[in-house]
Amino acid sequence: MANASRTIRALPAQLEDARALARVELDAFSDDPVSRALFGPHNPEGVTFRAKELAEGIAKNDPTTHYIKAVLGDDTIVGMAIWHFYLDEESSNAVERVDLDKKEWATGANVDACKDFFGQIFRMRDGMRGQRHAFLSCFATEIAHQGLGAGSTMLQYGVDIADKENLPGWLESSLKAHNLYKKFGFEDVDSFTLEIRKYGGEGARPIFGMNALKLLEMRRRPCRPKAPAAPQALQNAALPSSNDVLSGAPSLSEMSEWLRILGHSIDNQPKTEDMFTRYLFEVWEKLVSAETDRLPRYLQLLTLLAFHTFVKEKVDAVIFETHHGGEYDATNVIPNPVVTGITSLVGALTFSALQEDRPAAALRKRATEKGVHLTFVPANEALFDGVGVLNIPVQRLNCSLALEIARALLKLKAPDHTIESRTSPEVSTLSHGLGDSK
């Protein structure tokens, strides 16, 4: 495998390569449910149509667009990619918008399905319009040669240019290629679900919009933000004997960082990345086999995944960080949390950092409506001075809030264990644990 990978090269595609590129692309997606719903079975007419499109694109010699072929040692083309590099805002804004009603489609294509799919793709891409960026619009490896390194070689081609020009990156991904893109520093920022059952397929499939801020730097030096530092430090101190305590938080720089298990956080042990992937597929397959007309949206899916993971891993306690917050946040399906910070759920102890008069009044009103007792938490004097982020007033307030939430939880679930002063191990752990935080 390793020797085969080293013989694969990424080279600029020539006009005469158009048909080979089309053949590789259609072969790569021949077993993909979305592609089958959009374009039907792989056929010679489809290859001819796609080859014509690719030839027209190559012939334009657009300096922003690089048509790439992955070739073996004998020059056999086994992969193809189309990279776009917009080095200034003007070139990014100049990208032609595709009129889906006027676009010509290949014979046998399901026009309604194509409009549905590409309409949502173009919606996501519009988020990068007007910005300098690198964009991978097409990426495929012939099925017989997948796993030999062709994909990584073509990704590396674009990553190197993006790094040289200091460009953020953008691409769209199916579940199949998701992990490969993550290894190159891309993270999910958008998504949609295509209901292929409407177009003769089975179930539905997610499509992810992914970006990376500075591709090579992120891949080489993954200085990732960690899960919320204050709650995590308190977990470690207050529950030192339990490795089964998990915390759910919104996606950080890696999808798998969204779930963390004390003792082996998901971003630094391969076995938990495998666990994340396994549980994601278990949840998704259950959802698409349920024949429901409404699948969960992105954050709802992540919340379901969290519940599934927590049950499977037999956890003792969970810390959920809300997604966007508010009454209709996906995490608010939890009926009776032991403790909640700010979130207005009936029966929960509720805390907020100190607020200005108007937001404080709004929070009090909402707490009254929901029948909860709201406590505003000032800066905690037990926290150490001159330690890392605790020198920053707003972070000191945030840490004080985390400390108060932990204290309330312990009072209810472990009344013999208290957090009262600087001599408490939890306060010491929290203070020193934040010393190196940025």
TrEMBL record:
Coiled-coil residue spans: none
Signal peptide: none
Gene3D superfamilies attached to this UniProt entry: 3.40.630.30, Mur-like, catalytic domain (3.40.1190.10)
Domain of life: Eukaryota
InterPro entries: Acyl_CoA_acyltransferase, GNAT_dom, Mur-like_cat_sf, Trichothecene_AcTrans
SUPFAM superfamilies: Acyl-CoA N-acyltransferases (Nat) (SSF55729), MurD-like peptide ligases, catalytic domain (SSF53623)
Domain N-acetyltransferase: 6-217
Pfam families: Acetyltransf_1 (PF00583)
Entry's Gene Ontology molecular function annotations: acyltransferase activity, transferring groups other than amino-acyl groups; ATP binding
PANTHER family linked: ACETYLTRANSFERASE, GNAT FAMILY FAMILY (AFU_ORTHOLOGUE AFUA_8G05690), GNAT FAMILY ACETYLTRANSFERASE
Protein name (record): N-acetyltransferase domain-containing protein
